[in-house]
Records
---
Amino acid sequence: MRILVTGGAGFIGSAYVRAVLNDEYAGSADASVTVLDLLSYSGNVANLPMQNPRLTFVQGDIADSTLVRDVLPGHDAVVHFAAESHVDRSIAGALPFVTTNVLGTQTLLDAAGAARVGRFVHVSTDEVYGSIAHGSWTETWPVAPNSPYAASKASSDLLALAAHRTHGMDVVVTRCSNNYGPHQYPEKIIPLFVTNLLDGMPVPLYGDGGNIRDWLHVSDHCRGIQLVLEKGRSGEIYHIGGGSELTNRELTGRLLQACGADWDLVRPVADRKGHDRRYSLDITKISDELGYAPRVGLDEGLASTVTWYRANRDWWEPLKTRGAA
Ligand SMILES: NC(=O)c1ccc[n+]([C@@H]2O[C@H](COP(=O)([O-])OP(=O)(O)OC[C@H]3O[C@@H](n4cnc5c(N)ncnc54)[C@H](O)[C@@H]3O)[C@@H](O)[C@H]2O)c1
């Protein structure tokens, strides 16, 4: 099997590629992988086993139709991670989000259709639903995104589903909750806080710290994506969640403890514009149909993540110096 992985040099895409090449999934044992990645600020070849003979790396833009039409033929599946992924950056400037997340996705879909690749897994986010005060979203919930990032992801989800309904393409969409784990660029809350705290630096906590997120270890996310690639029903949406909801204040407390730091390093800052209050996914569908359940508990996952950042300063220090945080 030949799998094209877009955004495979980023945090989640590279975790998926490493798992495939380590033969962690029975359904993709011996699969070969082509990574197509622009190497934007968050893409990093140090995340990938570049010497592995089953890996081909192509540096390029998913919105480059000539390149994409050249690269796609011969692949059996596409797993599409490439995106601009940080909400704060989308608030500062939304255009790159539209170019990559919307135009880039349509460019890929067009090329995948022309090349008649098999399954196209479009990786998306719970943020497309907006915010929910009580209960959890099911896959039939209407999208109501608030940030430019979430709006661009919702747009690309709709285009991916339209390619299935209009052209009969074998498309499946996944929507997952907040990921954490090793190799995450130190701008998102967990790696930003951990790397600051390990250096004895303060951490910024938005607003009243009461925003609630569901936390999912990246390995559980990637396993869910693989289940969807192998067994998901065409044209469907599947949620992938962690079942670990915490306020940002609660998360901060756990990170302080894991890093051996105190609350005096926490600096309350003005809230993010349009900050969604709570995300919550119902994962009954993927659990019942595909047998998915998260395996990494939050305590264990946070502890191993902090251990990884402690042990891999040479990975994150240059990124912070370059201006990630
Ligand atoms: N991180 C999360 O918590 C989370 C949660 C839900 C969904 N997602 C989705 O998962 C996917 C991956 O997120 P991530 O956290 O790994 O992001 P990331 O920013 O770490 O990685 C994105 C990758 O895409 C590449 N890229 C960006 N623009 C590109 C372009 N035009 N052409 C080719 N490559 C390009 C980057 O170089 C990078 O390697 C995204 O689609 C995101 O929306 C992420």
---
Amino acid sequence: MGSAGLAQAPLRQDSPDFTYDSHNNISPDDQRGSAVPVTKATQDIKEVISNPTIPRAALNIQDERQNLAASVHPAYFRGSKFDRVPYWQRIHRWEDIGEREFLSYRWNTAKDVQGKEKLYYFLKEELPEKMPDTPEYEHTRTRDAFLEDVIRGIDLAPMSIRLTPHILASINWNDPLNDPLSRQFIPKKSTFQPDHPKLELDSLHESDDSPVEGLVHRYTDKCLFLASSHCPLYCRFCTRSYAVGADTETVTKAALKPARRRWEAMLDYIAATPVIQDVVLSGGDSYSLMPQHLAIIGSRLLEIPHVRRFRVATKGLCVSPSRTLDPNDDWTEELIKLSKEARLRGKHVAMHTHFNHPNEFSWVSREAAQKLYANGVTVRNQSVLLKGVNDDIDTMKGLIRELADNNIQPYYVYAGDLVKGVEDLRTPLSTILDLETQIRGSIAGFMTPQFVVDLPGGGGKRLAASYKTYDRATGRSTFVAPAVHGKNKEGRLYEYYDPLASLPNGGESVDFAAIEHIVI
Ligand code: SF4
């Protein structure tokens, strides 16, 4: 179903189970059961602009609609972001799915698209026979060419395929070659670029910094607790592609199974190491933990006297936000309980999530974020800078503002890690430096993210602008990390490399083997 069809056709949905989120200031009766036709939107705009008593928030919404005609985005992105429309019904197989089912986490996990074969059939149903013309992809303008490109791309990819209904419903299938969400999650052979010669599978050397399997202890007072190696969706660019998800044709994973015995060993290490005050509960994705397992690990961490705070890392709010609103799923309730329990103990529990593009938001995301905010859960966001996804100033500004408006703190923007098989998504260091220069001052300082590089070799996160040297001919930048200690780390100079495609002549004249680690 195309965007024009969605804008004009009435859409089916069940009676909503949830109270409408009043901060959008739209009457549910006006919105329930149908997308707003463009003609009605035009009337609304006139009415709102001519009536000064209508709240500013509503005016913004109408302004957004007014911009639709000139916008490159399909109408439904704006509509589904602000209005309670059943945006998933634009997917053929979900045309009859109502709100009650879509908001059920059980339904979402049953309907996700996992593996090459299921993705193939999904794409076959959804794609138009012809793609819009684009000079960049002159060989993949038909559906069959696109399908072949994807199937061959999967064979080269380090990450397996898993996509959630929310993300599938947020991609513009009329233009999947350029869609910023499709680029993040669906590999294509035509965009594949050779790996950088300095790239390693575990580029951050997490395994080297693990005193117990699945527990990374790099910074003195902080550790990373890898509880599971599963996620509700797999990102092409995952830093932890050495361990996360199922094996692929190119990578056999060092799987970190969600096992009580392994968790006990990690918790024992934390309890016996008083210098650890801060724990990141991650994976994989903490969303893949059962609610009772989240409660058990969280309670144990809160009981350790020297653990002052922990964060629960999950992309779930971005890729499957309905779970937060599902009254039959306890994951969010357990997180809220842990957050409240932590406050009573004078400790702090937060959620760290991962949005990369404004199109990842819908009204479901907004209501889910509002539920967390209303219940006192601090939510911070860590974005990855990705070529063709969010590496332009308008998109990055839009993302930061969207996060801020949803009371999600824009915490980090990472330069893409040197990860196997995804060189097409990396940008040179100069891109993140330019973005920071342009964005700083455009929004309040406390809503301005830190633009960082997670240093290959295990130096941790450093501000991108803190580089010691940057040679644009070789793409090599260097950093120091004096607070990070450990084997071979004292006085070490850490290196980051721009992608080969961004170098003069694609880096052909650079002898990377001759560029060695330097100790200062
Ligand atoms: S959600 Fe996080 S851990 Fe999972 S694939 Fe994406 S980046 Fe990797």
